[in-house]
Amino acid sequence: MKHYEVEILDAKTREKLCFLDKVEPQATIAEIKNLFTKTHPQWYPARQSLRLDPKGKSLKDEDVLQKLPVGTTATLYFRDLGAQISWVTVFLTEYAGPLFIYLLFYFRVPFIYGHKYDFTSSRHSVVHLACICHSFHYVKRLLETLFVHRFSHGTMPLRNIFKNCTYYWGFAAWMAYYINHPLYTPPTYGAQQVKLALAIFVICQLGNFSIHMALRDLRPAGSKTRKIPYPTKNPFTWLFLLVSCPNYTYEVGSWIGFAIMTQCLPVALFSLVGFTQMTIWAKGKHRSYLKEFRDYPPLRMPIVPFLL
Amino acid sequence: MAAAAAAAATKGNGGGGGRAGPSEGSGTRKKKGPGPLATAYLVIYNVVMTAGWLVIAVGLVRAYLAKGSYHSLYYSIEKPLKFFQTGALLEVLHCAIGIVPSSVVLTSFQVMSRVFLIWAVTHSVKEVQTEDSVLLFVTAWTVTEIIRYSFYTFSLLNHLPYLIKWARYTLFIVLYPMGVSGELLTIYAALPFVRQAGLYSISLPNKYNFSFDYYAFLILIMISYIPLFPQLYFHMIHQRRKVLSRSEEHKKFE
Questions:
Q1: What is the DSSP string of B92-148?
Q2: How many CB atoms lie within 10 A of CB A161?
Q3: In chain A, alpha helices (H)
Q4: Do B209 and A55 touch (CB under 8 A)?
Q5: CA nearest to A187 within chain B
Q6: ipTM above 0.85, yes or no
Q7: pLDDT at residue B18, rounded to an integer
Q8: d(CA A270, CA A175)
Q9: pTM of the entire predicted model
Q10: Distance (Å) from the alpha carbon of B26 to chain A's nearest alpha carbon
Q11: Chain A partners within 8 Å of B207 (Cβ)
Q12: Is B149 an active-site residue?
């Protein structure tokens, strides 16, 4: 069995960073990353991007050395992805914030509204309902992060946590401020509007959860396989017939429901911003599906049936 | 920020020449550039803009000579200023459709900040129009834009006189702080009138459970200059060193 030699160069400066000899042909990129960390401990594997070409795409951890288009002396280029943080950590932090922050406003903790309102309770039933819905939404997200989702990547760049938390926490505070305000005005069409909104919200929350479970079942524990998602016996998953990312569709639906329920402009703006971001993600996912699977169902749109 | 941003970030509105603005880490120097039709359009655009700002410059000078003082010159150039500065919104479109290699986000930011100052501050708060700070930023913008648009024009035609390149990458050293001061002083002057009139503000209670305090918003804008201005300024200084030293090298081989 012939051993490989692997030299690792800095992608920007072409400086020789590491030379590994006697590397097994069946060694994976993940194993090479581990070897590289030994000589450069500050670059733990999660922050290494190794590629065949300095400007090329990153090699995957599962790629096998022997199967790559390299000679027995392989040259790999290294790029530092920067400090990394695990997806789970980011998700838990960004979701715990809104849950907690909203409740601060709901209970009218001092220094938010005038002192005469400290720890008072709103006289509008919709405000209590909104708190339940908002809290439920984020508790659901936290539980899904811990028990449902199977992540493709372990980590993301550290700076993302600041960006993401600012977004989630900021919007949560902004929305909560108005909904729980002593001068809050309940919806124009009263109980009818709230009932309709609640129905939309609940249906979309169930839908979103169904999709998350369906996606989880597509992928065995610990694996990173990708398969085309299909509708299952659960009617909520039938949306897969029409869109690639029904989880995003349902998510937007939930927030639209919440916006109608509270008749609060900041909620509508949050929904809009979220929709924009999710559309970008959905289009990307849709494109990857199309690229990876020849037989991808042609009727499907990324996020909005028939339209977007 | 409007003064600083405009001179700094765009590589745009033209190809060739020294590129100011965030380089996208391009190792390969493959400048595709706009096609011939796009180039013709861009040349016309940049010529028109250069002319427009020259009109504003001339208008300022003539008004000064006529009045004998530099106070309240805003009124004499109000219309062309609004027209040509607002017209710069097209530059966002140019980036979006790809005929100019700048970032849409960066260009939007700088044009919007100018448009904001013109419409949401100076136009909206009439009491501010007689302030000298308005002349300060208008002058800074005018000189900057005349140089910037002629720079792009010449770059597109591949005939960039060193003087213009030098001017673009040197005069900002004075023009930026000048413009930023004018802008900040103008916003500051507008504050009491905004507060008094409750301009662009909405308070609770209302049907959509929303409130907006324009006064507080303007203060936030002023504060945002603190982190933003030094970044843009030092970026331009860095670009200056890169661009002008490269030119020196080229001159050596002539």
A1: HHHHHHTSS-S-HHHHHHHHHHHHIIIIIIIIT-GGGGG-HHHHHHHHHHHHHHHHH
A2: 16
A3: 29-39, 87-106, 125-147, 159-179, 190-218, 246-262, 265-292
A4: no
A5: B207
A6: no
A7: 32
A8: 8
A9: 0.81
A10: 10
A11: 185, 188, 263
A12: no
Residue ranges covered by each domain of chain A: 4-82, 85-292
Give the domain ranges of chain B.
Answer: 35-202+210-253
Q: Give me the mean pLDDT over the A132-143 stretch.
A: 97
Is B183 considered catalytic here?
A: yes
Task: Spell out which residues of chain A touch residue B220, defining contact as CB-CB under 8 Å.
Answer: none
Rounded Cα distance between A279 and A273, Å, is 10
pLDDT digit string (tens) for B97-119? 999 988 898 889 889 999 999 99
Task: For domain A4-82, give the fold.
Answer: Ubiquitin-like (UB roll) (3.10.20)
**Best of A124, A183, A189 to mutate (most B CBs within 10 Å, chain B):** A183
In the Cβ-directed half-sphere of A296, how many Cα atoms lie within 13 Å?
21
- Is A185 an 8 Å CB contact of chain B? yes
Joined tokens for residue B45: 């655009």
Q: What is the per-residue pLDDT across B237-253, written as a single tens digit (0 to 9) for each?
A: 998 998 888 776 666 55
Where does residue B53 rank: exposed (0-12), middle (13-18), buried (19+ CB within 10 A)? buried
The C-alpha of B186 sits at a distance from chain A's nearest C-alpha, in angstroms, of: 29
Residues in chain B: 254
pLDDT tens, residue by residue, B168-215: 999 999 999 999 999 999 999 999 999 999 999 999 999 999 999 999
Distance from CA of B112 to the nearest CA of A (A): 20
